[in-house]
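Let's practice the habit of predicting before peeking. Look at the sequence and jot down your guess about where helices and strands might fall. Then scroll down.
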Amino acid sequence: MERTPRGTPVGVDDPYEHVERCDHLTDDGRCRYAIEHGERDPAFARERRLAGYECLVSEEGNDWSDCPHFRSRATDRECRRCGLEELRMAHTGERPLLEEHHLSYPGDGEEPSHEITVVLCRWCHAKIHESWARIDDDVSPSAEALAESEGRRSRELDELGFEPASERYER
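Done guessing? Here is the structure:
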């Protein structure tokens, strides 16, 4: 299993198995990185321009790990492992239910070339880093996670129970 620089497990053997698509991939299959940030890597941009800016992965024999600018950051609003949905309370300092979990770390002192993240609830996140739990385990949200989520949902419903002043005070 992959590990962080501190040696804790990240819950996967191969981070690329948990990637749906590159953040730089446009809907029509082109590489947004080469189009918008070509000055950062002119040789890469030139190569993509000659290929009509087609994503490198679309070429036969290539996969996500072959692209030097691959990035996949999660934007999900539910835990990838247990399915707990995010409930954010506006204007409070409460800790979010969901956290970004990094799957890609440098190995042997190397800088990571790819950023790969998934979204996990903070309880699943802790289980993965503190044990041999895996991201693809078939689990339900923990009792503590459900209690926190339901507490937030109750407060949210209380906020929706707005009573106009005309109904609260007699005229």
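How did you do? The first strand starts at residue 71 and ends at 72.
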